[in-house]
Amino acid sequence: MPSRESHMTKRGKKQTRRRAKKDTSQKGSLFTAALGLNVSTGSIPSLPVSGSTSDPGTGSGTFLKRAPAPSKPTSPASTFWRPIRSFALSQLTSLVRRATLRESDLAPKYEKVHNFKVHTFRGPHWCEYCANFMWGLIAQGVKCADCGLNVHKQCSKVVPNDCQPDLRHVKKVYSCDLTTLVKAHNTKRPMVVDMCIQEIEARGLQSEGLYRISGFSELIEDVKLAFDRDGEKADISSNAYEDINIITGALKLYFRELPIPLITYDAYPRFIETAKVSDPEKRLESLHESLKLLPPAHCETLRYLMAHLKRVTQCDKDNLMPSENLGIVFGPTLMRAPDLDAMTALNDIRYQRLVVEMLITNEDVLF
């Protein structure tokens, strides 16, 4: 039979092991409380079966009913770590937000349809969509004037809207489709708009009659040729053109010569109907819905322009150009009636002015 001394020794060892296990459990509870976790240290939760759980203390397959655990009071450690965890979460959220903003600063991927035109190819050519031969001596197929894609006339109807304009084909800035120019230069807006607005805001916001007074037409044509020839390297600084009205005239000329106006032909009727709404709240809501009809490149350019014109109105004590006057100037410039008779187009002028005036006044709400 085991002696009393050996029995006491074994009992002391068991108590030591229990005490060490209890200390480990307390440390684990403190750590999980700091992280805000609600798990049991040292055990793996088992799946409940018919409302019963397995007894972790036995190796048998018997199941014991477990009473619902009483609600535990919040430990001091959890209370201590809660503000630190909230601060860490806010910092992480801030980092994600900044990364998202940096990503949004990149040039967006605007969708663009191909600009196909009937073309006569010299020598044998194959369709770049179906890879079949193009038969015939003349007008064998069509070619995209913006990216140079060669396809059959029938294939052009099913080609996806993934045109990537090439600067070798886009050889001018003025009179070029806005989305085509943006994609060719991989920018968010046409560089003409960015460069002109930056120059105007740098030295012309206080100029009296800004956008209302016209510059010399010969010099405005020189600016146009400079953009067509040099692109982003065009010099429009005060050293080249001291009169700021030449730069404003070049900007207005760009919008007038767009093949598709900034406010497109498709969206034009909706904008005009919006201007006829008498209730201010409904009119603003309708204007917001009308903006959704614009292509992404057009909407982004319009947003940038309206933000600039809003800054112009903030200096109206010096330049005498409030939103009403800017609406008169930019109404017919940004909006053109699609195939309307002269009388109808004349009646729409006042509504065009109202649309631009509303866009400027509510720029911070609409965009």
Describe the model:
The structure is a single chain. The strands form 2 sheets. A 3-stranded antiparallel β-sheet has the order 3-4-5, with no helix packed on it. Strands 1-2 form a two-stranded antiparallel sheet. The chain is mainly alpha-helical. Helix 4 runs antiparallel to helix 6, helix 5 crosses helix 6 and helix 6 packs across helix 11. Strand 1 and strand 2 form a beta hairpin. About 14% of the residues have low confidence. InterPro entries: PKC_DAG/PE (IPR002219), Rho-type_GAP (IPR051854), RhoGAP_chimaerin (IPR037860), RhoGAP_dom (IPR000198). GO terms for molecular function: GTPase activator activity; zinc ion binding. Pfam families: C1_1, RhoGAP.
- Terminal CA distance: 91 Å
The unreliable regions are: 29-69, 97-107
Radius of gyration over all CA atoms, rounded = 36 Å
Largest sheet composition: 3 strands, antiparallel
- Secondary-structure content class: mainly alpha
